[in-house]
Write a structure and sequence with these properties.
about 0% strand; Farnesyl Diphosphate Synthase; about 325 residues; about 75% helix; single chain; mainly alpha
Length: about 325
Amino acid sequence: MSVLTEIKKPVAAEMKEFESYFNKTLQTDVPFFKLILNTILRRKGKQMRPLLVFLTAKLNGTIKESSYVAATMIELLHTATLVHDDVVDEAIERRGLPSINSLWNSKIAVLVGDYLLAQGMLISVNKKSYDILGIVSDAVREIIKGELLQFHKTRKLNIREEDYFRIIKMKTASLISACTTCGASSVTDNEDVILKMKEFGENVGIAFQIKDDLLDYSGNGLTGKKEGNDIQEKKITLPLIHALRESGPVERRRIIRIIRRKKKGRKEISEVIDFVKRKNGIEYAESRMEEFSAKALATLEKYPESDTKAALKHFVEYSTSRKK
C-alpha cells in the first residue's frame, strides 16, 4: 500500500466521491475542447491538495458540500497553474507525458488554463461559497506575484534568503495554505480555527517546497526532472543561497558566472552541485525544512487523537521525506 493511500484512509469515501464531483466540472459540448479536457482528466496527479482539504475539514468538523466545492476549486486552480507554468517554462513534458502546449500550442494552453480558473470561480458563485472564493482568489493573486518576483530576481541573480522565503510563501505555500484554510472554512465559522489552519498549511507548504528544491540535488531520477534542473534554469534555491553565503568572493563569482550562462553542460552543473554539497547547503536547507515541518506538527498536537489527526501528521512527514 502506498503512503498516500494510507494517508487517504480517513477520507477515502470522500475522495472517491470527489472524483465524480470534479469530473462533472470539466464537461463540455465542444468536441475539440472535450478532447483537451479529457487529456487533463486522464493525467490526474496524486491529488494531494484535495486530500488536504478533506482532512482539514474532517479534523475541524463534518464534511459537507462546501468541502467538495473547496476541493474542486483548489484542484481546478492547481491544474490551471500547471498548464500555465508549462507555457511560461516552454516545457514539452508534464509528469513524463507531452504538455498541453506541446500537444497543441501555447495559445490554446493559456486559454485552457484561463477556462479552468473561470470554472472554479463559477462553481463557487453558483454554490454561494463566497468565503472560499475569497480564499482561493487570494491564493491566485499571491501565486502570480510570486512568479513575477522570482522572474525579476532570477534575471538579476540576487536572491537572498529572505527573498527565497518570500517567493516560496507566495508560489507554493499560498496554495497549500488555501487548501487547509478552505477545508476549515467549509465546516466552521470559528476565525481562530481557520487562522490556525492557515498557518498550518503555510508551514507545510514552505517545508514541501524546500524538499522540492532539495530533490534537485538528489540525482535519484524519480522527480520528473533531471538533477540540476533548477541550476540549468537559473533558479537560486535555499541550498545554493547558503553555499554562496559561505563562500569567498572569488569562488562565489565563479559559481554565479556558471549559473548566469544560458546553456550549461553536465560538467558545469556537477560543479555547482558539488560546491553546494561541500558548503553544507543540503544540510542547512534540511534543517530549515525540519523547522517548518515541526511548526506544522506542533499545531496538530493541540487536537485530540484521531485517525484524521494521525493522517495529517503522516502527510506532513511524507511532504519532507518523499523521493519525488
